[in-house]
Amino acid sequence: MVATVAGVRIPEEHWIGGAWVPSARRFTDLSPLDEQPIAELALGGPAEVDAAVTAARRAFRDFSRTTREERAELLHAIADEVLVRLDHLAAVETVDSGGLLRTHLRATLPRVAHHFRFFADRLLELHHPDFHLRAHRNHVSWDPAGVCGLITPWHSPLLQASWRIAPALAAGNTVVLKPAEWAPLTAALLCRITAEAGLPDGVLNLVQGTGTEAGAALAAHPGLARLAYTGSAPAGRRVAAAAGATLTPVSLELGGKSPIIIFADSDLDRAAAVAVEQFDHAGQFCHAGGRLLVERRVAEEFSTRFLMRANALRQGDPRDVRTDIGPQIHRTHLKRIDGFVTRALAAGARPLLGGSRHDRLGGLYYRPTLLADPPPGGEILTEEILGPVLTLQTFDTEAQALSLANNSRHGLAATVFTGNTDRARRVTANLVAGTVWVNCGAVRDLRAPYGGARQSGIGRGGGQWSFDFYCDLKNTVFAPDGLLD
């Protein structure tokens, strides 16, 4: 069966062993634009997961023997095909996830192609100098691990999937992908793209379905060599527990509750601009800086500059290139966001901006929101919201700023604005976060590590760190009269 979305024909079945495979059961994919059905997809479970893992294990025998040059060529071919189909991918992802069309065209989906190119090129550079001990030579190699199970989220779904798929394939592994059921369609298009780029049958497999059924079956499957999950911390704990039963190594990119610390000596215009950018993607991205921590003596001035920018944002149909903020992904998620805000207001938080669903647009639109003076220790400060909701707290000293910033179970990212280099060094050294930005935001070289501390995840991706996870590292020791030149 095939769905037509934004004029693009999309297979509704699983992709297993190089063929579209149906299931007797289906589930409905709704567009966040109007909550109308756009596809009826195959609903997979343990049987489909097992078939996909079996196909991937069969394909691994040959694919793991390919050379680095052969795999790099395949990944570049995939990147080329992504760029050729950029308009179609962007149109479908906008209708399926609610993300801005202009962002998909200019940034998100070109980044998908860049992921494949980057890991292709990094593969060819992967090297470690030999170690020498008593004339013995220790030689490090990165061997393909096996079948990788990948469970990816609904926010920026193709970007998130490619971040996992590209290094797994570059390493010589085969993949079983379970995309999020709220935005699954571009995953099917990617399977078609990889096949047309020449990826052998069974190297990339797709099982559609829910996290509680298909995702759980994949996490627990004993045939996996690696398991990677991107999503919430509670679900990450369940995934890790399932993988633990088979001792499958896991990579977890989980939620965040990232602070933005703004000192009085900051460039307040720049700080306000980055703070307002946290409303991008309707606040639905994991490293969003949802907690604004502002030095008290400039809090009023900063708020004025922030509100001037935020009030100029245009909310509406994400297909309109003039739109700045689109809808939330799903009715369930909208209710969750509204619940956080309603309870915070009842507990005494002051709304400086928004604070409710968008009464004019209706549907899944939530107004960009800034809540001042949230109750200390309240859930609005501790739980990931993944929506267009920010809080504002004030501090008087550097120590207070650090205490507020680190008062979280999470540690994905943090941002610091200051005009003092010594302070920047002190504060960043004491922040608990996987990524810290200073006087900027959301800029990252793919050669650098990415991941979270505390309950924001396990492991790091990017550069060599991705290959360290998706490979079995081997040390071969040669005697003094060994065979290496």
Automatic annotation (TrEMBL):
<comment type="similarity">
    <text>Belongs to the aldehyde dehydrogenase family.</text>
</comment>
<feature type="active site">
    <location>
        <position position="253"/>
    </location>
</feature>
<dbReference type="InterPro" id="IPR016162">
    <property type="entry name" value="Ald_DH_N"/>
</dbReference>
<dbReference type="Pfam" id="PF00171">
    <property type="entry name" value="Aldedh"/>
</dbReference>
<dbReference type="InterPro" id="IPR016161">
    <property type="entry name" value="Ald_DH/histidinol_DH"/>
</dbReference>
<dbReference type="InterPro" id="IPR029510">
    <property type="entry name" value="Ald_DH_CS_GLU"/>
</dbReference>
<keyword id="KW-0560">Oxidoreductase</keyword>
<dbReference type="InterPro" id="IPR015590">
    <property type="entry name" value="Aldehyde_DH_dom"/>
</dbReference>
<protein>
    <submittedName>
        <fullName>5-carboxymethyl-2-hydroxymuconic-semialdehyde dehydrogenase</fullName>
        <ecNumber>1.2.1.60</ecNumber>
    </submittedName>
</protein>
<dbReference type="GO" id="GO:0018480">
    <property type="term" value="F:5-carboxymethyl-2-hydroxymuconic-semialdehyde dehydrogenase activity"/>
</dbReference>
<feature type="domain" description="Aldehyde dehydrogenase">
    <location>
        <begin position="20"/>
        <end position="475"/>
    </location>
</feature>
<dbReference type="InterPro" id="IPR016163">
    <property type="entry name" value="Ald_DH_C"/>
</dbReference>
